[in-house]
Amino acid sequence: MKRLVLFLWLACIAAIASPTVTFAQDTPQPTPTPDWHVYDDPAMHFRAPDGFFPVGQRHLALGDLSQDSVVVAGWIYPNKDHPRRLVIEQAAFDGDVDGWESVYENQLRDQFDNPFFKDKTDTKLRNGMPAKFLEMTTGEGFSVQKFYMLIWADGERGVALLLQTKMDDISALNARVLLSDATAVRYPVESP
Question: How far is CA 12 from CA 9, 19, 21, 27, in A?
Fold first, then answer.
């Protein structure tokens, strides 16, 4: 009987001394760490490939977008022999992907010296959204840069996903693979 009382008394002391065991169900669980490779907003999803590191992200409301493209997310591939930059740009635009291509090309012509566009191809995003794949070369001599672009329009915005590399660093096929994890839908605008 003394052993039973002593055992119960030790069990009570252990329970009081260790509240985490007794009250573990009440302990709040930590929230999951966000995946900085992912950019999501109401009308699109993109996941940057492994090996790219985030530079930053921001989400802009439709009313905060102008007709000039702005960067909303960026990643870098930190390899001194193969530097690459990946960005998402958005602008206010209410037309289709063909109209957006014309507007976006003009914006790029204003930003870069002697841009040369080629291989404009109609394509689709992973979920079937109509898009275009473009290649652009800019610069001279040792500073020549290659841009691979996947662009689309979602009814409220023009969106561009750009991969910037050194000339002859990767092929267009490899660039398409790096840009392939993108999906989009028509931007969900609330009815009046």
Answer: 5, 11, 12, 21
CATH number at residue 150: 3.40.1000.10
Rounded Cα gap, residues 148 and 89, in angstroms: 13
Domain-embedded: residue 119: yes
Per-residue pLDDT tens digits for 17-72: 444 444 444 556 655 668 899 999 999 999 999 999 999 999 999 999 999 999 99
Judge whether 168 lies within some domain.
yes
Q: What is the domain range of residue 99? A: 38-184
Paired with 57 in beta bridges are 73
Q: Do the domain assignments include residue 108?
A: yes
- pTM above threshold 0.90: no
The three-state secondary structure class of 169 is: coil
CA gap 48, 51 in Å, rounded? 9
Q: How far is CA 116 from CA 28, 71, 105, 128, 144, in A?
A: 56, 22, 10, 28, 11
124-129-131 Cα angle (round to 5): 50
Does some domain include residue 124? yes
| Contact (Cβ atoms closer than 8 angstroms) between residue 148 and residue 172 | yes
Q: How many domains does the chain have?
A: 1
d(Cα 17, Cα 115) in Å, to the nearest integer? 71
